Amino acid sequence: MLGAKPGAADGARTVSWAAEIPVPRSVNGNQRISVQVHGETLKGIRAVGMKLDALDDKNQLLTSLDAQAPSRGTFPWQPLELVWPADTRAKKLRLKLYLTVSDAQDTAGRVWFDDLKIEPVDPPDAGSLAFPTADEGRPAFGGRRSARWTARPGWDLVSVPFRTAEKKSGATLKLAIRAERPMDVTIEWRKGLTNGKGRGAEDAIGGERAFAVNETWRVVEMPVGPGLSQLVFRSSQEGIVWIDEIDLVE
């Protein structure tokens, strides 16, 4: 919440919340920055809004965008949006939510901001995210190549089907994994269910575990229960993830 006290203005001044956000190495398409804003009894306020600056590796300004909300009276929660055209030169985004008080003698009011989001204007096709390609780099084990996937937050990286005996006891999942940059990769295992007629039903989540992954191959292990039918991988950020030598150890 940002607020202005009655009679607080002595020349125009701005109260703001600001943050700097690093830009991922690979950004696909335009990005929508949105926030919900609500104002209460605003008086003597010059501007209420959201500002976004895109900066290069030398901290030079590339793009500056600004969106403003009502600055008088009381208004209900409403969206405030900016669309940033992705620029490969940008290394960080500087975001500011602000309230600027005018030089009027009688000033008052409060502004709330909530539910800040940054998301692609056109989300990628989910089907394209689960298609493996051969990696030309060094594999984890042996002379063969590893499977490589492009990861994006909020999307399943890849789903790996399994078929195990229903009465088989739990086992330990073991695999090798690395990524082009540090990130967290969550592995979720699912178990197949059957309905009352013995037919397959929708899989249920059996458990999950997150692992810190970086540029170096590491072997990870996690327990999985009986009836394992599928593994689902998810990542915390965009990038390339390599997975090799998936195995179940009793």
Overall pLDDT confidence: 75
Oligomer: single chain
Question: N- to C-terminal separation?
Answer: 55 Å
Q: Mind describing the biggest β-sheet?
A: 5 strands, antiparallel
Uncertain parts:
4-11, 126-146, 197-201
The beta-strand count equals: 17
Strand order of the largest sheet: 9-10-17-12-15
Helix content: under 10%
Give me the CATH architecture of the largest domain, please.
Answer: Sandwich
Q: H/E series, N to C?
A: EEEEEEEEEEEEEEEEE
Structural class based on helices, strands and sheet pairing: mainly beta
| The CATH topology of the largest domain | Jelly Rolls
Helix segment count?
Answer: 0
Tell me the name of the CATH homologous superfamily of the largest domain: Galactose-binding domain-like
Radius of gyration: 25 Å
* Fraction of residues in β-strands: over 45%
Structural notes for this entry:
The protein is mainly beta and 250 residues long. Helix content is 0%, strand content 62%. It has two domains: 2-120, Jelly Rolls (Sandwich); 126-249, Jelly Rolls (Sandwich), CATH 2.60.120. The protein has a five-stranded antiparallel β-sheet, with no helix packed on it. A hairpin with a 5-residue loop joins strand 13 and strand 14. It is elongated. Mean pLDDT is 75; it is low at 4-11, 126-146 and 197-201.
Question: Secondary structure elements and their pairing?
Answer:
Blueprint: E1 2-4, E2 13-22, E3 31-43, E4 45-55, E5 61-69, E6 73-84, E7 92-101, E8 108-120, E9 133-134, E10 147-151, E11 156-161, E12 171-179, E13 183-194, E14 200-213, E15 218-224, E16 228-235, E17 239-249
